[in-house]
Design brief:
DNA-binding transcription factor activity (chains A, B); 3 strands; globular; homodimer; 75% helix; 216 residues; DNA binding (chains A, B); transcription (chains A, B); FCD domain-containing protein (chains A, B); Arc Repressor Mutant, subunit A; Tscrpt_reg_HTH_GntR (chains A, B); 3-stranded antiparallel sheet; DNA-binding; mainly alpha
Amino acid sequence: MSENAGRWLRDEIENAILSNEFGPGERLDEMVLASRFGVSRTPVREALMQLNAIGLIEIRPRRGAVVIDPGPHRIYEMFEVMAELEGLAGSLAARRLDEPSRQAITAAHKRCEHSAEAGDSDAYYYDNEEFHKAIYAASRSEFLEEQCTQLHRRLRPYRRLQLRVRNRLSTSFLEHCGIVDAIFAGDGEEARRLLRSHVGIQGERFSDLVASMATR
Amino acid sequence: MSENAGRWLRDEIENAILSNEFGPGERLDEMVLASRFGVSRTPVREALMQLNAIGLIEIRPRRGAVVIDPGPHRIYEMFEVMAELEGLAGSLAARRLDEPSRQAITAAHKRCEHSAEAGDSDAYYYDNEEFHKAIYAASRSEFLEEQCTQLHRRLRPYRRLQLRVRNRLSTSFLEHCGIVDAIFAGDGEEARRLLRSHVGIQGERFSDLVASMATR
DNA sequence: GTCAATGATCGTGTATACAAGAATTGAAAT
DNA sequence: ATTTCAATTCTTGTATACACGATCATTGAC
């Protein structure tokens, strides 16, 4: 348990939402949560407000908190923004790359390769996250890194869905290769372009997303 | 006063921070704030946590809240991200422009023109905000609009500083003209490019920022 | 039978009380 | 004089109690 109950609860409830235990639209009763986690309403309310700030739930005054249902279109919009931010991170990384960042990216990239070859989608899911985070860090813009990490976290469940699509694993890794090449070559604009299309969900990938959301 | 004290307090304290009444690094005592605003600590704590989520203050466990001091470099990073998001908004606006958005942009642009000609920096500050918001809305991406609005709000005080720089008013308006042309022409990439350089603070504008921050 | 009004009930919003960790101050020892 | 340790005080974190608005059900009228 984290040092204060509020943040611990935030993570607990967040996980419950991301793992779909609390489905979209579901009402979150403060007292129910309080007794479930063995605390009073006060830290529960703190956690709920933080989740509200993150954008996972909506708190309507005097009417309680409900889990937000983003809907395919909004998810598409979120990926669109994510693509833009990652593109920026990539272009900065390419221009500012130093040795530690280079090594971090290489290491994460290698781990992705192993997971992809093994066809281990769960491992790739994790390694992919590390790969992208390595690029955020390499941008050497702390603010950008924070923004990317936050949005990445929020998109986590949908990313997971995407990886289940046929061939997505190897396609994703191939795209990573191009991105790494561009960054290491110092080609910021190419890195930006590749990351944008890697992260965004254009064309058929959008229907893939909608389809996988329908069957969860 | 808003319907619940928490949000009202959030706005109150936020304004106090943005207007520099609570300076960077300053400690925010819950009881002091509570008695100042005539409420108990509970809504004060709620407001502080929301401000923490926004990024205006930092809450260290058991050690209270302090106003964050971004520092020139971090502000630069924030403008860099803002420029990217606005660029995206502009490019989407150019591709998706409809009649209501076109009218909204035109109206805001006209108001900017008047303020700029009058040399009224306060009026321009406000009209400029409306102009940019019109572009966010024209992107027809609700999520992007929210992100832009949020970041714009956070950068408000520094934007204000920037406008005080000599000739910035007319320069800014001239840039607006180009942006409007590109959007109305449906040239998404040009709109993106122009907005990026309009919003970002490259070169001498960065030293202008640092200088104006030092003398406030 | 349907709709509206009124009262009951439930849940959130706020205040206050209590617990526990951190900062501070003072004294003692080196 | 300086440093360290301990005790006190101050502030935050959590629980609980109370107030008020919203929702729901029941009853009455049309």
